[in-house]
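Practice problem: predict the structure.
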Amino acid sequence: MVQRMYRMIKEISPDAKLIIATSESQVANIRSQIGEAEISIEPDRRDTFPAIALATSYLQEKCGVEADDTVVVCPIDPYTDKSYFEMISMLDQEAKKGCSLTLMGIEPTYPSAKYGYIIPESVYLVDKVKSFKEKPSEKEAEALIKQHALWNGGVFAFKLSYVLNIAERQYGSSAYDFLFNHYSSLPKISFDYAIVEKETDIKVVRYNGEWKDLGTWNTLTEAMEDAVSGNAKVEKCTNTHVINELKIPLIALGLENVAVAATPDGILVTDKHQSSYLKDYVDDQRPMVEKKAWGKFEVLDYQVSNDGSSRSLTKHLRIKAGEQISYQRHKHRSKTWVIVEGEGEVILDDEVRSVCRGDTVIVPVGVKHASRALTDLHMIEVQVGDKLMEEDDECFDWDWTAKDRYNRWLTLGLMTDELKKLSSDQIESAFCSDLHFGTGGIRAVMGAGTNKMNSYTVAKTTQGLSDYLNQRFTEPSVIIAYDTRHQSREFAIKAASVFEHNRIKVFLFPRPVPTPMLSFAVRRMDASAGVVITASHNSKEYNGYKVYDDRGCQITDEAPKEIHKYIRLVGWQSFDYKDCFAGYIHKELCDSYIDEVIRASYIDAAEKTISILYTPLHGTGYRLVAETFHRAGFKNVDTVPGQEQPDGDFPTCPNPNPEEPEVLAFAYDYARKIDADIIIATDPDCDRIGVSAKVRGDEYRVLNPNEVGVLILDFICDQGKRYPNPVFMKTIVTTSMAEKIAVECGCRVINTLTGFKYIGEQIDKLRSDETFIFAMEESCGYLSNETVRDKDGVNAALLIAMVAEYYKRKNMTLFDRMEELYEEYGYYLNTQHSFRFDGREGILHMNAIMKRFTWPMKNFDGLQLISGIDYSNGVYGLPASEVREYRFSDGSRFIVRPSGTEQKLKVYIETVGKSREDLNEKEGIIIKEIRKILKVL
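Answer:
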């Protein structure tokens, strides 16, 4: 009703200044319905005159309304048509003419004892009021109607100064602060008794349109389209309406002229004609469901001890993401919070800790406490005490902002020099939250702050991981690797010192090594876990921290959640530990790794004539890849000048991502100079590769990541027909073309969620009679080496070199073979689009966007959608994941998912056709429609 009244008035009078007068308990409910409306809050329950006086003063002092401006007061409970709101303008005209008070009178449709009556002097549209009659009997009402009396609709119009002058006389002041602060002591009196019945200069405007007072259950049922609302059955009933808001079923049998309402606040069964007397029987009682500014709560249970000395109250609190419960303490009650869904933060006596599902927080009597939701947060609250009342609330100020975290760092002496250089905006960015530990570990821009990569966040993460490992292993051990980025070695040593402080045996690689070597080392050395300090292919500002389990797999699913819980329990401390650790990884392990890579890369004994130009992009592949090529028999290998040495600034490739074509373009001039057949690039931690190959003459072109994988798969399928029960693995966002090839070659295909970590898990689950032959993902990740459980750039570089050598012997380029595959299996175009959403608001925005992707969904400008898959429900035996996939009738599809390491939404589009001509057009149509859903340009 509030929404309808508000909307209709705005439609008729767009420039009208609207305020809503209501009690504090209704504010959150109204905010949730109509947003940031002006609200005059009544501090206590009085009556209509004090409420109107307070609201009128609010209009003058808070909204700038002038003394001669017209104020119109409307109740929110009538059900009317548009003409009702158009009639309000007539009240405004009469007030401007100088009439002290103008009312709206409703033409009666029947004699009713429920309403007050206005008796005008005549039957004109606008006329003076002769007298009033408050709620007469039906017989009296019938006589009044014959005198052309009107129902009092509770609509008043007056000049603003009119009511304020009366308030000044009656209360001694009409100032807003005075009225608000003394509101509880103001006399309870209605506007009718205080003003209307005493005023002589009063007019009434007749209204004869649709009007129903929905203030009673009887009139509310008249406006209901259906006799039943909610989980209810009505059988053998006459003129009976049932509303059931409860979860339990309700059945009404053989009733006549009855209204039934079952709500969390109580159950009403009333004869309709008696419903207007309900307020006489309802005491002020505790609400069972109540909306608040932060969300809402539902009372689940209320108990009183036998002697009445103790009470317990159990609530289900739902706190909206980004909202908070105020900082408070109680003298007479304790609380226990059990988190059942979502993530947030709580404060206990100025100490902040993170919470998530499964956590329990005990709040003793007298302890200051508050909670804040980072995502939608559900928790069960149990209050116990001798008094359970709001008067027991003592509220305090608490700064949830980044400034508080910033001050804590200053107190601890953490990175003080860097902190003092930060501007206000930089403080907000650096301390707006803690880094979230997920399946990708943590990854962020380096710098000071809880939301940045630095020695403190590395140490805190390591402490949480240490606690996790010490709970799972009797004598845990950890292997640490790191890449060539700035501070990677420092972060690795800091992590090692924290592990050792927690009595965990540590082994550290003595120099930067490829990430897949960590996976290999964890397996070969039977370690409990592995940690690699890397930000993979991100720009120089970033660094990260990834964790591998005792199988050498990057952690997935429950493990990250458990580790995150331990990290959140780590208190504020400086982690000022001595740098020392158990030992370094020996060179023999590196040699064993190279042996396994060569064995798994289908290297034959024939002479290798292909010319390879390799670039490590200033990363960890600079020694190992070259040595592996040499030992595998590839003698004609050069490195790109200027990119061969480690450098955390990545001076020749600010974005060292082999997925980006321009990264490979840097090598073209030198490739032409040495007449290279193929250019191979590995990213800084050497787990991904990019490939560019000669087309004809001195022209080079980049093979997209899906094409690289398809070429390797096709080659392995041809080479590996001797293997029993071959298995091929790919992620759901990887090209469907690969699946076609694998199936035709007799492979079992396993699809996983996005991320090579899920492929690593699947390798461990293979049956003993199955043979893993190859795995790929669309983001430049490949593996044929089953002794590693992650994508491997060294392995992939050797594979693609062998594929190029194989076809060079046939006088073919890689593009020649790729064209043959397109002709055989159809043309595929796979593209990826990223949309970044920064800050805390960005997280909330991404969550809201994902909810827009539902099924069914309208077709995309001529492309017919035939199915939608919501992976959050755990389909196809995959873990539940916030991923949506939509498929078109021609075989095209798109997938939307949040990034696991950054605040991005990623969109993967695959278009399919019999020729290249229409692929780009289809892709353009799909991304255009997706942008509309995302509401980005």
